[in-house]
Amino acid sequence: MPTSTPKRRADAERNIETILRTTHELMARGVLPSMSEVATTSGIGRVTLYSHFPSREALLEEVLRRGIAHTDEVLTELELEDRPPAEALARMVQETWPILDRHRRVRTIALAEIGPEALRRQHDAAFQHVGRLVERGRATGDFRTDQPVDWLVATFYAILHAAADEVDAGRLTSADAPALLISTLLSTLRP
Hints:
single chain; mainly alpha; elongated; 0% strand; 2 domains; Tetracycline Repressor, domain 2
């Protein structure tokens, strides 16, 4: 005899996706929305919303987790190990800049809500891709060896996020950012 469990599960997954998409769209305006605003805008009842996400913080954490997981997936699929380090860096920036650009206001909100250290911990998986690239570039002589790998990775991300901040401030266009990032990062990493 069939049960309604699979249907409810599919409904729950659709609700979660709707909630997360709506939250991201609202956050793209630059403010962490209230749970009431998410419920109203998504058309999902408050009881259902709270059953999936008991707080705004839990909702923010999941929006961040999914965005970073997507970045990690993209970086994994790029197969950067098959390219020379400078070319791999350029490809990494070209492919991940649109993701950061789409999530840059979410990042700003997360910095204010959970702080830089918690946000950095969320990025650990993505940082590993850059760390491996920097180590490979050091081994081939393409990247500097006079500074620690962790520092170079942190510098990489600081420059990337500085570009997002400049786009937010209107001093840089999103279209111009990748080329500037690539030249700046290469000049920073080269010996």
